[in-house]
Amino acid sequence: MEITRILDAALRKAAAVWITSPGHEPRLVHAHWRDDALWVITGGTEQEVPGLADQSQVTVTVRSPSTHSHLIDATATAHLTEPDEETAQALRTARLNTKPDWEAVYRLEFSA
């Protein structure tokens, strides 16, 4: 599907996206694209994302990695999850945290 191709191309290069949760202003969030989903860590010494909760519907706004202009808005469902060790290591590497101090990990899955 076209949206998946666009998201995949953009999110492979993006280190941050804008997430809008219901009832909250858009928030710039560090995220990691992996396994066709966007991974977001929150709490502890990590970022806070007001309104992000298990099963919440959010809007993810992606900017072009080359021009930084608006590229696409996509709806995603957040799933609170416990990452496997390989994914946890990828998240630590992406955030440069050798000792993770996050309280929650969300896997954002996009609607087709």
UniProtKB/TrEMBL annotation:
<dbReference type="InterPro" id="IPR012349">
    <property type="entry name" value="Split_barrel_FMN-bd"/>
</dbReference>
<protein>
    <recommendedName>
        <fullName>Pyridoxamine 5'-phosphate oxidase</fullName>
    </recommendedName>
</protein>
